[in-house]
Amino acid sequence: PRFDIVVSAFTLFELPDRKSRLQAILALWRKTENYLVLVEQGTHAGFKIINEARDLILHLIESSSKREDDPQGYIFSPCPHEFKCPKISVDNGIPCNFQASYIPLSLKDARITRKERYSYVVFKKGKTHE
Where are the transmembrane segments (predicted)? Predict the structure, then answer.
């Protein structure tokens, strides 16, 4: 079966090697009907994994656009382009990440707001701006 939205959050980093991650990403893409959302820690390692996924999916999209049998796709968010990520070429030590605040579910720390940094990419199947 295929699903309208497929999400992998903070799991690709747990896989033992690049080959395993790429196989998992490919399997997730094949299960995707509309949107594939990938989220990892907002660290250098998490950002690197998101870019591995980004490169793989963009390669698959480019390959499928040369054939008629597979749907096309594009980066839906956060990037407004499909070129190499400029954060990779800039050696300033800051990965592309975002921050979210939350209150943990633990009752003893109910009033303490925490912050988490994450890197992500969302792909959409179909033609650009469909």
Answer: none
